[in-house]
Amino acid sequence: MISTGDLKKGLSIELDGQLYTILDWQHIKLGRGGATVRLKLRNLRTGAIVERTFDAGEKFRRVFLDRVHVMYQYRDGDQYHFMDTTTYEDIVLTEDQLGDARLYLTDNMELDIIMYEGQPISVELPEKVVLRVTYTEPGVKGDTATGGSKPATTETGLVVQVPLFVNIGDLIRINTTTGEYVERA
């Protein structure tokens, strides 16, 4: 068990029967009364981000997670197959376990699967990925006085706003945490 004073970014805890990773925390001390701690948490199973406030000194159960380095192989229906790069075992995750992370997966991509008590629960994507644009409207020079943007669909089905100069077939780099266009690759 750890208390609110021992919390830090990246730590994993169990709360209300769910596994969470701490994205951010803030200690708040008001004029009168006790101190509180505000936590920004990511649910490891669903990927949902929540903010919760706790009294200072409250205790949490710390969770130790394992990471397995894998390579994405293929999709079969709603199941996604990964190969452990050390043991060559097949690890299968469902669409529900992956959530929006499935929109960033490309063949032979290397990433980490987060395991808890021997069971895969989610994936940890690289910070940026390169995807090919499969559809976007053509951008016409002089459309806007300032920089404009348009929607583009990538090979994985992800729709992202891109600058007007991006065309079908271009490779673009996308930030996986925000889902935003970064640059042409």
TrEMBL record:
SUPFAM superfamilies found in the cross-reference section: Nucleic acid-binding proteins, Translation proteins SH3-like domain
SMART domains per UniProt: EFP, Elong-fact-P_C
Cellular compartment(s): Cytoplasm
One GO process term, biological-process aspect: peptide biosynthetic process
PROSITE patterns: EFP
Functional description taken from the UniProt entry: Involved in peptide bond synthesis. Stimulates efficient translation and peptide-bond synthesis on native or reconstituted 70S ribosomes in vitro. Probably functions indirectly by altering the affinity of the ribosome for aminoacyl-tRNA, thus increasing their reactivity as acceptors for peptidyl transferase.
The protein, known as: Elongation factor P
Species in which this protein is naturally found: Thermogemmatispora tikiterensis
Originating gene: efp
